[in-house]
Amino acid sequence: MIGLGQKPYRGRQIARWLFAKGCDSFEKMTDVSKSFREILSRLYSVDPLLTLQADESDQEGARRLLWRLSDGEMTESVILKEFNHHTLCVSSQVGCRMGCRFCRTGSMGLKRQLTQGEIVGQIIRARELLQPSPESLTNIVFMGMGEPLDNAENVLRSLKIITSPDYLAFSSKHISLSTVGVVPQIQALSEQGGLKCGLTISLGSADDDLRSSLMPCNKSWPLQKLKEALLSYPLPKGRRFTFAYVLLAGVNDSPEQALLLSKFLTGLKSKINLIPFNPWPGAPFKRPSPEATAAFQDVLLDKFHTAQIRSTKGASVNAACGLLAASQPVSENRIAERA
After folding, report:
1. Does the annotation mark 76 as catalytic?
2. Residue 137 three-state SS
3. What is the Cα–Cα distance from 119 to 159, expressed in whole angstroms?
């Protein structure tokens, strides 16, 4: 706006139209002069970067949204219906370079970063889909496609828009960012005072050799370096780290592995989400039995950890944890094209 000879407040004014009101045309910005609206329309476009390619729901209340981006690439979001609200799982990349072997997204490799507009756009469009109750979308989790801290600049800029009371106005208490543990970025965040939102660490194993075989990032940032970074991280008051642990049958689901996890967590304010593996075509792992899952949890509870087994939502429409791969709909007749 300054470059167009306008006062700075004009930028905030237009941003409120875009983010708080979801305006899709300069012509609708009624408190902007007609002459300046014509200039904006000539120079810029308010163009939705996300086209809804497919919308699928399952019986558990998970709604998978497959988005086609302006360059033809695809990414996904998932709306999760909770008891009295909705949570949106957003993506930060098209694909992912981290290569975690239990994650279908990792098998894609990284195609490109999402812009801050494409990240924020997922939330704006999800609110549209939840009409007439867009306010029921209260929680945001950066747990979709991609490693958020591998696209830190765009993710952090999007968080400012998401949490601004003038724009999307989400509470930081209801936002969580998931990472495999990109140590340099965690250290950089620490130097900046940390995030006000929650931080979830995908662990996979508390044994270095096993974790390196499951999550290549561990070769660059082994467990000790990760723990040192977390011990120095300024958690918001009253918050704990969440550790996401995908249980793989016969690989990392033994009581011995649970004891190693307990030892690793010593000194860290933590809670643990145990996620039984969600199989996908060609996956080299199997889902653990309920008995093995419960036994793993019991070891952690006996060590006085907070550990819960996460229920699976969205598996039937490829929307469950670890299944996002921007694949075509399970049922072709559910495709909903939007221009």
Report:
1. yes
2. strand
3. 9
| 28 and 34 Cβ atoms separated by less than 8 Å | no
Write out pLDDT tens, residues 185-196. 999 999 999 999
- Identify which of 216, 186, 220, 219 has the alpha carbon closest to the alpha carbon of residue 201: 186
Identify the band that residue 328 occupies on the pLDDT scale cut at 50, 70 and 90: low
Cα–Cα nearest to 69, from 29, 119, 4: 119
DSSP-derived letter for residue 16 is I
Tokens of 177: 């960012």
89, 100, 217, 321: the active-site residue: 321
Please state, in angstroms and rounded to a whole number, the distance separating the CA atoms of residues 158 and 88.
15
Place of tokens 């300069």: 26
**Does residue 132 have a cis bond before it (omega within 30 degrees)?**
yes
Amino acid identity, position 241: F
Per-residue b/e over 173-190, b at no fewer than 16 CB within 10 Å?
ebbbbbbbbbbebbeebb
Rounded Cα distance, 161 and 273, in Å: 28
Interior/surface letters 103-121, b for 16+ CB within 10 angstroms, e for the rest: bbbbebebbebbbbbbbbb
What domains are there in the chain, each with its CATH number?
1-47 (1.10.150.530), 48-334 (3.20.20.70)
What region does 197 belong to: left with phi over 0, alpha with psi -120 to 50, or beta? beta
Active site residue 321: yes
- First and final CA of the chain: distance in angstroms? 29
User: Which candidate in 38, 73, 76, 118 is catalytic?
Assistant: 76
User: CA 81 → CA 139, 152, 177, 267, 277, distances in Å?
Assistant: 11, 28, 19, 34, 21
What's 278's DSSP letter?
Answer: -
Residue 334 reports pLDDT greater than 60: no
CA-based nearest residue to 92, from 153, 146, 159, 162: 146
Question: Which runs of E-coded beta strand occur in 238-295?
Answer: 241-247, 270-276
Q: pTM for this structure? A: 0.88
Q: Each residue of 112-151: pLDDT tens digit?
A: 999 999 999 999 999 989 988 889 999 999 999 999 999 9
Element (H, E) at 110: strand 110-113
